[in-house]
Amino acid sequence: MRIRSMMLGAAMALALDAKADEGMWLPSQLPSIAKNLKDTGFRGDPKDLADLTKAPLNAVVRIGGGTGSFVSPDGLVVTNHHVAFGVIQYNTRPDRDLINEGFVAPDRAGELPANPDYRLRVTVGFDKVTDRILADARGKTGRAYYDAVDAASKALVAECEKEPGIRCSVANMFYGRDFYLVRQLELRDIRLVYAPPRAIGNYGDEIDNFVWPRHAGDFTILRAYVGKDGKPADFSPDNVPYHPPSHLKLATEGVAEGDFVMLAGYPGTTYRHRTAAEFADQIEWRLPTSVAVLKGLQDVIEAQGKADKEAGIRYASQLQSLKNNIKRFSGELEGLKRSDAVAVRREDEAAMLAWLATQSDAAALKPSIDQAMALIAQGKDVRDRDLLVGLLTSQTQLMRGALSIDRLSVERLKADAERESGYQKRDEELIQSQLKQIQRRYDPRVEKALVTSVLTRYQQLPDAQRLPEVDKVFGRTPAELTRALDGIYGATTFAGEAERTRLFAAAPADVAKSNDPLLVAARTLRPALLRIEEEKKAREGDLLRLRPAYMQALIAYREKQGKAVYPDANSTLRVSYGKVTPLAARDAVSYAPLTTVQGIVEKNTGAFPFDAPVPLIDAIHKGDFAGYTDAKTGAMPVDFLSNLDTTGGNSGSPVLNARGELVGLNFDSNWEAVSASWMYDPRYKRAIHVDMRYMRWLMDKVYPSHALLLELGVPAK
């Protein structure tokens, strides 16, 4: 049998026996699994879910680093507290502590603008463009293959973005097998409307992160604005609320164990279709190394924040992200080891390749598979260097800004289509916004300490992984590093917003002439960063060319097994469905799927991170829960558990009941299932959601905003 004949004619072929608790499905796949949806409890028509430009999916948006959803005709958006935390931090000052005190806008005029680079995107188109993307790439290899795919993608994006207010991208499905053009309406004026105090939105902090039972009210409400002409616009007091094409209806009833639930969102990245060698690399090197390096950065920020409150505020969002990633990576490592993931994946891959050997397409596919595996193995040679250099740019503020200005000045000399992605004309507004917000997220002492933490590790690398440009700027010893950083940060004027604005607008020749020490450092580092980039592009080009053979074999093998076939997550809109489900975590340890306010009281110590606000504790003791309690138990719910298939990026995703009403907000996974981005295990995979009854009760009885409840269609009781 030829493998292609088993592919059901398309890369998006569905499993013969798709299970309700596994799968991050493309909306277009849902009609084909209509029976599964109906059998699980969905009461609507699955065909209504196939079109992501129609209700209810066009109410689901990508916002910040997660997901949100429109919940009113006047542009109200609900998402997680942690997804909007950067907005809250951006508006916090020593004399206005929105992080710890929360925020309730008194009226629309009192809503606060988000940080300048905060964006909301609504998907308005999703079209297959594989033939156009690969037309000029076929027959090429390495960097040439990468460049052909890149050029075709840029051309499609440029054509797509001729429509004002539309942001486009090309999504890679099945690792180079298929490509889709994604069209999104991008809204730039987003404002903070309602945020609970930190001790509600992040109750339990890292102790409870990725842990069930959970008792966090992880939600925040924002509003999207547009210009008076109805088109996307930068912040202006004259802007008006955006009127979305649809919005979700909040349910007035809650959920109970066994109830159908469905989630839509923008999951970031999963790796379930990766090779066994990549599983091994993740477990044996990447996860433990990343945890160690990031923990060093966390320690720096916490120490600096204790000594300087304002510095602590400036780095609060970055610290929260670091802590979340450290715990997630730790849980992923533990979970993959618990599941013996390397051995399981190796056995599975070996069985797939043995099966492939019996197929008539084996001679055509196996050479490409072997080449891909060899390339993956070669990536180990410089992985430590690349990890640390990447952190040098991603975990700094001022240095990242200087590197961005330097690179932009070089790219501006090219035709727009030839510029590097991220530095085209379409990207300049975002770069400018990021440069502007540095003012509220930078402290020289903290940044120097962060750079020292990263480069101290770098200086311990063998010479084969060292970069002469990095050594030239920062030295080869700790003492040289300290002197270099003191000199750079002590003399730079780039810390001033006016200077950054001037350099952003300056001609490339003027930027090249700058003798500012930070710009000189960026200019010196540029050749090294470009070499790393060139190496990655050549490797990625070949992997884009070769991986489809592996995926073709894997998809056919999965279908033969009757298992689910859906693309790994890649920040495109997906849907998962399942039920409110308890958890048997380990021997003699089982958890019910709903938590209540009683758990808040039981955990409360009055000290961080279990320092529940006094108004909340008082309201719980008062017991005025009428209209919000669980129908069966009479208890006031907080969070609930389901077997929905989720990963990072699903934070803030709306959880809908069988009628398509909003019953919860996804915000976390349980510790036993953090590794699900690599390996799905139905015994343990659970998702954690804020119960909308808890959100409504808080907005009614604890930190009241009755006008907002009225706008949400659920008036105060």
Notes on the protein architecture:
With 717 residues, the protein is α+β, with helices and mostly antiparallel strands. The chain has 25 helices and 20 strands. The strands form three sheets. Strands 1, 2, 3, 4, 5, 6, 7, 8, 9, 10 and 11 form an eleven-stranded antiparallel sheet that branches. Strands 13-12-18-19-20-17-16 form a seven-stranded antiparallel sheet. A two-stranded antiparallel ribbon has the order 14-15. Helix 5 packs across helix 21, helix 8 runs antiparallel to helix 10 and helix 8 runs antiparallel to helix 11. The longest helix is centred in the C-terminal third of the chain and has 45 residues. The N terminus is likely disordered.
Short description:
This protein is an alpha+beta fold. It is built from 25 helices and 20 strands. The N terminus is likely disordered.
Task: Based on the model shown, name its key terms.
globular, 717 residues, seven-stranded antiparallel beta sheet, alpha+beta, 25 helices, single chain
Chain-wise SSE layout:
Blueprint lengths: L33 H7 L19 E4 L2 E5 L5 E4 L5 H6 L7 H4 L1 E2 L7 E2 L6 E9 L1 H5 L7 H19 L5 E8 L4 E10 L1 E7 L2 H4 L3 H4 L11 E7 L13 E2 L18 E6 L10 H32 L1 H6 L1 H23 L2 H16 L5 H17 L4 H12 L3 H14 L13 H13 L6 H15 L9 H7 L3 H14 L5 H9 L2 H6 L3 H45 L12 E6 L3 E4 L2 E3 L2 E3 H7 L10 H9 L14 E6 L11 E3 L5 E8 L17 E5 H11 L3 H6 L6
Helix pairs in contact: 5-21, 8-10, 8-11, 8-16, 12-21, 13-16, 14-21, 16-18, 17-21
Number of helices: 25
Oligomer: single chain
- Uncertain segments are 1-20
Overall mean pLDDT score? Answer: 95
The secondary-structure class comes to alpha+beta
The level of helicity is: 40-55%
Distance between the termini: 65 Å
